Fold each of these.
Amino acid sequence: MSAKKLILIRHGQTEWNKAGRLHGRSDLPLNDTGIRQAQQLATELAPEGTWDAVYSSPLFRARQTAQILANSLGIRALHENQELMEQDFGDLEGTLVADGADEQRQLLVGTGETEEHLVGRAVNALFKICHQHPGQNVMVVSHSALICSVIAALTGESNPRMANGTYVELDAQLLVNHVSREPLGNSEATAKPACRPWIMAGTRLCVLVSGGLAAAEAAAYHQDAPSTVTWGFSPYQSTLPVKLRVSSSSS
């Protein structure tokens, strides 16, 4: 038996996020907008019921977000997990990157942590968290590259990049399916294996859209996508998703 509900949350905004700089392991605090995003997210999640635990990347921006959520929602169990740390981008951290631009993706070839290692350690952590909290509701606060890479690996599809202060509700069965194909190993969050390109997320997982996109667009997405995603929109970033529901196509 695994967690009843597992959501993956991207931390609130930092000054580097605002400027469009590549974050990685560089450790910055939330800015004022990021704090408001975390507070707004807590308000949104409060009606969802009791939350039993929060897990967080050890990086400060994630820990701040997790602490705001825990304090606001009365969650006593707050844990740090090294395997939830953001992807290591090596010497490119701090550089300005155009979100999603092909030429910027190429800059990430041959530096930092591989996509394979990132997904391996993240799935390892999430699978264990799910099975440590059977029947419970659990939050995981992490980072854009990690969350998007995991979703792409579990569903076999690209997905939109996540806005700061947004979350994905993950079907635990996707983790079980993945682990049945790729048995868990002993990953080390600080390791830097041989390098491969980092692939930025695309946009194919959009299926059901609540607000912000026309019904015709939603229907067009629905024709091709094998997984289900529900979008909402943030008062701080009105064109970016707040809520995504991802489930396996067989469920």
Amino acid sequence: MRYAQGGGLTAERRRFRERIRYEAGERFAWGERTAVIERDLWVSERSVERWRHAWQMGGMDALASTGPAKVPKVSDCQFAELEQELALGPAERGWEDQRWTLARVRALIAWKFGIGCSSATVCGCCTGMAGPGSLGRSPLVSRRLRLAGAAGLEPAASGFGDRRSGHLS
């Protein structure tokens, strides 16, 4: 599972990576070269360089884990507001045509709720990323279909929009 699909590192894996960064930090203090640390810890040169820079700027504390990555969430209340906004149409918000694009929905979410999110997140939220045959199993599908309907989208049999072009319809 990829990070954008809700995957990412488990708490155990984050602690493991943090221990590696701390070990690298100790080796920075001893003056070891990047190539040696990279080879011994089985990490990329770029990772060692990033860690070394963080260590130089903030010491060992800068190598601590910052916790799990969090995807901004739209609450159910905010989602209901978003549905209403989308039902008004893009012209209500100053766009010339009546076409909701991923960029426009993304801008609306950022303006209305102060939540920054990627186009992929908007696509997943608005159109449903569940694959064919899994519609009945996904708990978010009814919510996504309601939003797609409010945005004037018609879900196709093979998917819910054209992610390549950035358009939801």
Amino acid sequence: MADDLLDGGTDVMSDEDLVRRGRALGQVPNSPYRAVALRWTTQALDDRFLDAVDGATHALQITCVATRRDHMVILLAQRLDIDAWADTAVWLAMLDLITKALPGGAGSMGVGGLARVPRDIPRSYRQARQALEIRTASDDRHGVTNHDDLGVYGLVSTPEADDFVQEWLAPLLDYDHLHATDLTETLASYLKHTGHYGQTAEALDIHRSTVRYRLHHIRDLLHHDLGASDVRFNLQIAIRIWQGSHHTR
């Protein structure tokens, strides 16, 4: 049942059948879900690990069904006070309780968005996996990433986002790839510092004249006026999405 919910295999079931089968698993009828993805170091995802997860969720009054797939444990979690559990502190508390039950290891957790009905669970599952990949690819790979906190980074896995990045950054990305340059990062820093040459140079630890030279090259490649507010806005969004995608690979 849990795997069917994660993969959308319940789409052909009636709402009544979903409620009945959910009750059989101990789920709360008409209560929303969040998918949660867990990875752990120095601990097999065995029954001992599942017992630790069960103890943590029970302590936090979270009802969940667990399944193992792709070297992860996936939880379908429910909690009646949905406003409280949107807080990342709840998931940090869960991670802390599991860590205390399994000393010597460390875990990573990705939390998906709220699924108000069972048919939204596959989306929450994709978001949980994406949040976990962003967490494990970061400098601080152990901890919690909540999809609700990702903002524009939550768009990185959509085809539309890829198309948007290609539309605005493809010449720059291709040039960097072919010539081992850092023009995209230069543009990112320039936009982050609102077009201030000195601050950009300081952030990149290069001379102001180097910043000016690179930006001239960037303008030639992109054929955009970097002074136009709408161009800057679109480039900032494209760079944010690219950075999110880049950091998950």
Amino acid sequence: MRAAARTPATSPPSPLSSPGTASPWSATSSPGWWPAGGSPPRPAALDAGWLAAEPAVAQLVGSVPLVVGGRSAGARVACRTAAAVGAAAVLCLAFPLHPPGRPERSRVEELLTPQVPVLVVQGTRDPFGSADEVRAAADGARMLHVSPVEGADHGLKLARSAALGQDEALALVAAEALRFLRTAAARK
């Protein structure tokens, strides 16, 4: 899901809640700002961009606990910067555990950096690391939970032969994320 050119998000983070209920959380993702088909900037540049935007996000959310997250490179940024922004939890969609076909170049240290609850929603066919690979790499991590999306790739897209349809799978992803946030909120 890359736009022709990404620009920083300008809308405030929205509270996550069920219709008609208040939420004690506010969530934001770390956006990627690079051209379609291009490579993301180096990790330090992505982190610096997010950390520069964080004071404005903090002002928007006030005293509400902040959940940070992202997809792919954004999930890496969220993990690396969670402590710096005072995140209460981290939500990773399709965490790129390693480059495709290069499991020896593991990024598990980034994934294990947060000292807060972490949910990784990962496809079972993700060439950047399947749900099983992420689970094995994070074995013993007390506050990390891996939720597999059966038949999904790195974009959380399903194979045509998958048992579930794409909309059903994305509804399950959303339900799992909400369950995680509610569980993390109960720990507060």
